[in-house]
Specification:
The structure is a single chain. By secondary structure, the protein is α/β, with parallel strands linked by helices. It folds into four domains: 81 residues, no CATH class; 148 residues, Rossmann fold, CATH 3.40.50; 80 residues; 90 residues, Arc Repressor Mutant, subunit A, CATH 1.10.10. It contains 19 helices and eleven strands. Strands 5-6-7-4-8 form a five-stranded parallel β-sheet, sandwiched between helices. Strands 1-2-3 form a three-stranded antiparallel β-sheet. Strands 9-11-10 form a three-stranded antiparallel β-sheet. The two termini are 43 Å apart.
Length: 425
């Protein structure tokens, strides 16, 4: 995320004024095109803010209002890539406006869309943004999911705000404790994966409206829930990725900063398109590709498997097919660890606690070279590298402290456990 105030100011200006970045003439014989002055300012700010594209050989300077800058095709490619990558930043910037400005009354910002489209990722981006953190007195996060557990959600939200030494409180006492802690404060609450109106009605009593611009971010899949919870802000409907955005994300997830092999580009584009603009599908497939040989024949098999799943109309089933492919490549012992984590701790757990449970259940077993704890640590990182779990928290040194799982992967774990061991397994 870009927290540079000058960068934010100019992106906001470009969006509001509906400026075009370029003035035609892309097909000039000399291979140059004319770039708007405001766009050159944007490019300068982007390079300064992100430390990317330092290899641009021409030093750009913001020209006067009447001057024009000619850039070669190489620079044009950089700029077009920046514009595409910043599309998602502009969504975030618009939502930040809703959160930090607007009415003094309590407002609800709903992020609506199908499973795996990136609602939770966007909510986390907002929740952890420096501008947001500095705007509110307190911030808290609660996850609901389809199987709503009021007590668990209340404990999760309270845990972000106060030390919890007494777990014997009733649900009503916990709700009242949360309400009292939020009184007279400007707060931001995230409620992730809200399914039902009843769950909203039960929780809404915890959130006082003291006319101090408090905000609630909701992520949900259903328009009727978003309409019911609406106060001032209209729901934000999360769109699918374009083919170009899907391709860029796949490249980044599989190869990082390394150059994508030219011989895999054609098949890579086909794989990205097969994910049909669903970010979670792209990330899962990338985790799968990262584990197999970087050969066209191996990648083509993945393409064929994806095409088979794409004839199924239901998006959730398409995800399950991709998850099944990824799961099948895990070692047998790691499969057990993955299923156990998804069944019991999918909404999030500290890695230390998870490792203790894996060792106690003998899912992670030591050998002559490593202790059971170190084997379990390797398992955690293998799941992270496969994109089957999400890192929730890291230490300052980068060590993974807590992980969670997307609810679709949790559903896969529950279904697989029942299929293998029955409902009591």
């Amino acid at each position: 995320m870009h927290d540079d105030p000058l960068f934010l100011k100019h992106v906001y200006y470009l969006k509001k004024e509906k400026r075009n970045f370029f003035n035609g003439q892309k097909d000039n014989p000399n291979g140059s095109f004319i770039m708007q002055p405001a766009a050159i300012v944007f490019l300068n700010l982007y390079i300064h803010s992100t430390k990317q594209f330092r290899d641009i050989s021409i030093i750009l300077s913001a020209p006067s209002a009447t001057s024009q800058q000619h850039l070669n095709r190489q620079i044009q490619g950089y700029v077009l890539l920046i514009v595409q990558e910043e599309a998602h930043f502009l969504w975030t910037e618009e939502l930040i406006e809703r959160l930090i400005w607007g009415p003094k009354d309590l407002d609800v910002v709903s992020l609506v869309g199908m499973p795996g489209i990136g609602k939770t990722t966007l909510a986390k981006r907002l929740y952890t943004h420096n501008v947001i953190i500095s705007r509110f007195d307190v911030c808290s996060w609660g996850t609901i999911s389809q199987a709503y557990n009021k007590r668990k959600t209340l404990l999760e939200m309270l845990g972000d705000l106060v030390p919890l030494n007494d777990s014997t409180c009733s649900d009503d006492e916990l709700a009242e404790k949360l309400r009292r802690h939020l009184l007279k404060k400007s707060y931001l609450i995230v409620i992730d994966d809200l399914w039902s109106i009843d769950a909203w009605d039960a929780l809404m009593r915890c959130f006082p409206d003291d006319k101090n611009s408090s905000r609630i971010i909701l992520t949900n899949r259903r328009d009727n829930v978003a309409s019911y919870t609406k106060r001032f802000s209209a729901p934000h409907h999360h769109r699918l990725f374009t083919d170009e955005e899907s391709w860029r994300l796949l490249q980044k997830e599989v190869f990082g900063e390394e150059r994508f092999p030219p011989e895999l580009e054609k098949i890579g584009v086909q794989i990205a398109q097969s994910c049909r603009g669903l970010p979670l599908a792209i990330v899962l497939v990338a985790g799968l590709l990262a584990k197999i040989e970087k050969q066209e024949l191996c990648w083509r098999k993945v393409t064929n498997d994806l095409r088979c799943s794409c004839v199924i109309a239901d998006d959730a089933q398409r995800y399950m097919d991709i998850i099944t492919l990824s799961f099948s490549l895990l070692p047998d012992q790691l499969k057990l660890c993955f299923l156990y984590f998804g069944e019991y701790f999918g909404n999030g757990v500290k890695v230390r606690k998870l490792i203790q449970r894996w060792v106690a259940e003998e899912f992670a077993i030591g050998n002559g070279l490593k202790s059971a704890e170190n084997v379990a640590k390797d398992y955690v990182m293998e799941l992270v590298d496969s994109n089957l779990v999400m890192v929730v928290r890291r230490s300052f040194s980068g060590k993974v402290i807590a992980i969670s799982m997307h609810d679709l992967l949790g559903e896969f774990c529950s279904t697989t456990c029942i299929d293998q061991w029955g409902p009591e397994g």
